[in-house]
Structures are given as structure tokens and as C-alpha cells.
Amino acid sequence: MVRIVVRRLLSAIPLLIALSLFVFVLLDLMEGDAARAAAGENATPEEIAAASERLGLDKPLLLRYVLWLGNAVRGDLGESLLSSQSVSALIFERVPVTLSLALVTLVIAVLVGLPLGIAAALRPNSALDRFVTAIASVLMAIPPFVIGLVLVLIFAVSASVFPATGYSALGEEGFGEWLNHLVLPAIALAAISGAELARQTRAAMVDTLGMDFVRTVRAKGLRSPMIVGKHALKNAGVPIVTILGLQASRVLAGAVTVEFVFALPGFGSLAVTAVNQRDIPVILGIVMVSAVGVLIVNLVVDVSYGYFNPKLRR
Amino acid sequence: MTQGPLTEPAADVDGATAVAATPPGSSTSPGAGRRRGAGRAMRQLRRNRSAMVALTFLLLVVLAAVLAPLLAPADPAAQDLINQLQGPSSEHLLGTDNFGRDVLSRLLFGAQVTLVAVLQALVIAAVAGIPLGLLAGFVGGPVDAVLSRVSDALLSLPPLILALAIVGILGPGLTNVMIAIGVVLAPPLFRLARGAAQSVTSETYIEACRAMGCSPWRILWRHVLPNASSPLLVQLTFSAGVIIIAEASLSFLGLGVQPPDASWGTMLRDAFDAIYESPYFMVAPAVMIVLTILSFAVLGDGLRDALEGRGVSVPREKRGVRGLMRMATTRRG
Lengths: 314, 333
Hints:
The complex is a heterodimer.
Chain A: H1 2-28, H2 31-39, H3 45-54, H4 61-73, H5 87-122, H6 127-140, H7 144-158, H8 170-209, H9 212-219, H10 224-235, H11 237-261, H12 267-277, H13 280-308
Chain B: H1 9-21, H2 30-47, H3 49-66, H4 68-71, H5 103-139, H6 141-155, H7 159-170, H8 174-201, H9 204-211, H10 216-252, H11 264-273, H12 283-307, H13 314-319
């Protein structure tokens, strides 16, 4: 297992380098604008030149990239052009919000999607199966922020059951408030994830339940819950975990719009602010942190394959 | 793993009868064979009721968008601040928004913006992804290694984050957003084209063609690309849905279409800004967005089913999860 982890980590390095170089070169295409943005709107050419020097923009591209990379490896992603705050600090004060959101989203998606998928798989082509499949297909076509808007409308504007905006950190007002603020945005994000999970669980379980070993354990007289819960579900685990892993990227992308709708001060809203202000170092930092996040989730998924299918332990 | 559990047995029967029904003796040239295959796929697609409903809906949207200047009852940008946030009436069939603009007219012109956006992004993605993919698969070696690395790197990011970053670089605006989304959608096409090129390059008929003096371009264009066209078509259909989501999301965030131009995303943004005053005028753009995305998804499913066995394995390629799983087993919309 250690070998898998090490191998995967090593293979992630060229990936991250390629990605950072790609974004860095793209960013370089507008270097003059960066200096102008930093110097302020009515800056004289001298002020822009000074800003450019202060930001190190007068050095050649490759040198700047190597310098940035050297700092980035040590956790220093540079300074925001506009607030002069450290990019790492900016990002990491936002990460807990988005992580909380992702956590609640995944819990909802798993609690709803997994049982529905299993139930549908137990009776393929039944009314329940068709209902689940149809609902899942429709939900997968709705962008998360549209669901978010509808939820705001129903639960916050009309009924005032949940707060429409804002975030309450875990340490501030306790677990209840924390959850209260996250429920609606998490449902908005969980709709797609739950739907995808239900569809994949259904497919994987239908496959597994049709296998010979299931017939054998059934012939042995094992009760149905044991067959489904212990034998079939574990064998269907690989595709299910794969889908779960893909949700990391999906939730991160959905968080951008959903955090905006619910005014959550998370990673996604930081991204929107940075893009609106064209704050290059922050954008670059966000891209790299997202990529690392997604890679870590993929790694966890890969390692979990060994649990579900011992043949994949190498 | 076997094919999807919901594969309808009827599909196979259809295929068999279609083959039997084609007159013998007409299958001499490979071109004719390809055309006949396409005809069979079309027939199968036509039998798929949900796919046809989706296609009809999309055609209606295209028609509405093209005829928007004729159909729209009012100027989509004309403000009427006295009559803002009105409900449906005979004058404004879908009511007015928070600037008193006619919602129906904005919806029609918004369809125009959305479709142009889809077209732009698809062309950019195809032009960036497909030729490079064919090249990488055909040439191999360091060219392939470098291009594949870049493609993997782009695939490792959440699409919207990457699109956001590119918009951050280029600045807001619809064309920039579409460039961004085109770049985001290129890697899956790159992979499909590369895979097709790789699988075909070692075939004997390519060798024969090369021996006869075909130029590499001719091989790529005449022999490799047609082999990849089915999975690429399916992938492009699915991509259209992704583009609409991305356009709507970015316009909703204020980064895409700039006011006073209408797009479904900016209409949702206007609705969101006025959510406390008049909660219901978000319904029309939201319904249009969802139905259009759903239609592209259903049509994509239908196309994949119809083209099955012609090298279509889009989901697996699209997701890049080592063929361990099979996406979208459901055969129905």
C-alpha cells in the first residue's frame, strides 16, 4: 500500500508542474495588466514600472516561474496584488468553509443516493427503479446554483426555515448553527452528486447481484440483508468509490456558484473575487490548491480500491 | 464487466434486422459501408423516443433563437421602470424583470446568446483538441508525452475552476468565457482522438496506405478521423450541456455576458438580485436552462446507444478512471 501511495505521489509531481507552467505562461500573457492592476487605476507609466519591478515582473518568465515554484513548494504562494495579504493565508482561511460544505454535501449524497441506488438495483425495472432513474437523470441536468436559487426561494425567502446567507464556524455558535447554515447549500450541491451516486450504485449492484457468487451465498441460505450489505455492496464498491471520488472535483466546481448564492465566505467565493479583480497570484494559488486537493482525493480513492478488491493490491 | 444491465434486447434485434434489410451487393467500397452504418445508427436513433423528443426540443430552441428578432414582442433591452417585476399579462406574456424589460423577449434573445456560445466553445474545443489528439496518437514519442501531460494536468482540475482562472486571465465577456470553456473541454476530445489514432496506426491498411505513398495528413484525415468520429460526436453532444451549465454559471457570477445583453445566466442573476421582491421571474430562464441541458444529455445517451459498437466508449474516456467503471448505464433519458 505504501508503494501505491509513493508511486501515485511521484506521478503527481510532473502533473502539477505541467499545470502550474501552463497557467503561469497564460498569466504571463497579461503581465502588463498585472502591474497596472497593482499600481491602481490612474497610475503613471513610472508607477506601473515600479509596481512591475516590485512584483518581479521585469525578470524573464522562466526565472520568475522557478522562483515562484521554489516558494510554492515551501507553502508560499506569493502576495495578493490588491490586498498585499499572503495568498496562502487568504486561501487557508477560506478552506474550512468549503471543506465543511463538501463534508455535509457528501453525507447527504451518500445517505440519499446509496440507499436509493441499492433499492433500485434490488428490483430492476420496477416502478421504484424507473422513478429513481428518471429523477436522477433530471437532477443531473440542473446546475447546482439553480437548485440553490429554488431552495433560497422556498426555505429562506418564503418560509424562513433556514438562514439564506452566511456561515457560522464550528467553534462560534456550536454544531447546530454550523449545520443550519450549511444545509441548503449542501442540498444544492448534493443533488447532482447524490443522483450520480444513485445511478452508479444501481448499475454496480445490478451487475454484482447477477454474479454467480451471489447465487451461491443465496443458495447457502444467507439472509438477503447480509447478501446485499456484506457481499454485494463490497464487490460493487470500486465503481461506487470512484464516483464518490469524482464528486470532489464536482463539489469544488459547484461551490463557486453555490457559495455565491448563499454568501458563504469559502474557497469558491474567493475564486470569484480574485477573478473579478484579476488578482493573478490568488488565481494561480487557487488553481494549484484545487489541483492538489483533487489529487489527494484521487489518491485516497486509489488506496481504497485495495480494500474493496484485494486483487488491486499490488 | 458486461455491458449495461439495462441494454434493451430490442436494440440488438434492431441492429440485426437493419443489417439483413440492407440490399446485398452494395457493400463494395468502404465508403458505402460507412454510410450504411450511419444510416443504421440514424434509424436506431429515430426509434429512441426520448432522444427524438430531446432533438425536437433543441431544434425548436434553435428556431426560436434564429427567429428571435421576429418573434420577440419587445426590445429585450428596453427598460420600463414603471412596469418593473410585473406578472404575466397579455402585453408581457412572461411578465417583466427588475428593469421592466420583457422577459419573453429576453428569453428568446438569450437563446441566441446561449446557442452562439455553445457553437463557439465547441469549435474551439474541437479545433484545439482533435488535431492535437490525432497528432499525439499518430506520432507518439515525446510529442505525445508532452501533449498528454498537459491534457492530464488540465483534466485534473475542476472544469469551472479552470474556466474561472482563464476568464481571470482574459477578463470577463462572453467570447473570453467561451475560449475558457473551449480549453476546458478540449482534453477529453484530445484523449478520444489520440486513442483512436493509436488504435488505428498499427492496422495493416494504414501500413498499406503508407506503402502506397499516402501523406500522414491524408492518413489522419481520411482514415483515422472517420474512425474516431462516432465517439467524438457523442462527446461533443455531452459537451454542449456542459457549455450551457458553464455559460449560465459564469454569466450568473457576472463574468460572462455583460449587461444589458440577455443570456439565460444573466437573467437568473437579475432574478437573484430581485429575489425578495419578486421570487418567480427566475422560473422561465431556469426552466429553459434545465430543459436544454437535459435535452443534450438525453440526445447524447441516444446517440451513444445508436452508435454503440462503432468505437463509442465516451464515458470511460471522458472520466479517465482506468476503465474500472462504466458511466451512465441507464439507457433511457
